[in-house]
Specification:
Elements: E1 3-7, H1 14-19, E2 23-25, E3 28-31, E4 34-36, H2 46-54, E5 60-62, H3 66-78, E6 83-87, H4 95-109, E7 115-119, H5 124-139, H6 144-154, E8 158-163, H7 168-173, H8 179-182, E9 189-195, E10 201-208, H9 210-224, E11 232-237, H10 241-252, E12 260-265, H11 268-274, E13 279-284
Parallel strand pairs: 1-2, 1-6, 6-7, 11-12
Antiparallel strand pairs: 3-4, 3-5, 8-9, 8-13, 9-10, 11-13
Amino acid sequence: MFRIVTDTSSNLPTAYLQAENITVIPFTFHTESGEQSCMDTATFDAKAFYTAMRNGEKVTTSQIPPQRFVDYLHPMLENGEDVLFVSMSSGISGSYASSKIAANQLQEEFPERKILTVDTYSASLAEGLVVMHAVECREKGMSIDETYTLLRALRHRIAQIFTVGDLRYLKRTGRLSNLEAAVGTVLQIKPLLKGDPEGKIVCFAKVRGRQRAIEEMAKRYEALVVEPEAQTVCISHADCEPDAQILANLLRRSTKPPKEILTVDYEPVTGSHVGPGALALFFLSDENVRNI
């Protein structure tokens, strides 16, 4: 057995994290109320948070520093546990680099323990999907090394497709790698975004209107999903529950309905970058999906 650790960007429901004994290391964000973290998505008031953003409140975020990783992981290693850390994409955050610094430092103190870190090239429930597969591996009795190898292959198969209500949030935080490609020149042009092979956010298409954007997300799912009957498909949204339900219904009525759909509010750190109105879809495809 080994300990599974992730960060708050993985956006998994609190009840699931507690049931599977997953340790979560927090990102922090700053609002007019000061520095905060969201360790319990069940009590996170997403509507109030995103309404405040719509009304002009600025939110800034901080990567996880190496010392925070040390503080969380040290007791586990001291207790004789090996640690598998599943991280937010290095393409949009420096926290994975921080985790490596901490792991190297801790490895010197605990040379007999295994400390393995996985860069998911993902965020939100795309990262959460990797965590859920780690749990499945552990339940099957796989070793930490076997799980690590599987997750490093799996991360290339995670499809991340999303649209946003307003590009200014991604623009302000520099999280969109090809901003010029996403900017619409006609009223109501909506960008379709994805995670690229390096875990960066890129625009791959533009459509007219929000409804069309949602329909195109569902079409892309139908074209790219593999073995939907055996997988949990995930939807994250930033205070646009009706749109999330429309997307979920399209998936259920498709020719490839998923086994299960998990829908959550975007947690505040990742959500502050994509902004109010963001809608995202995550599922397993083949290893070339990030290039399509």
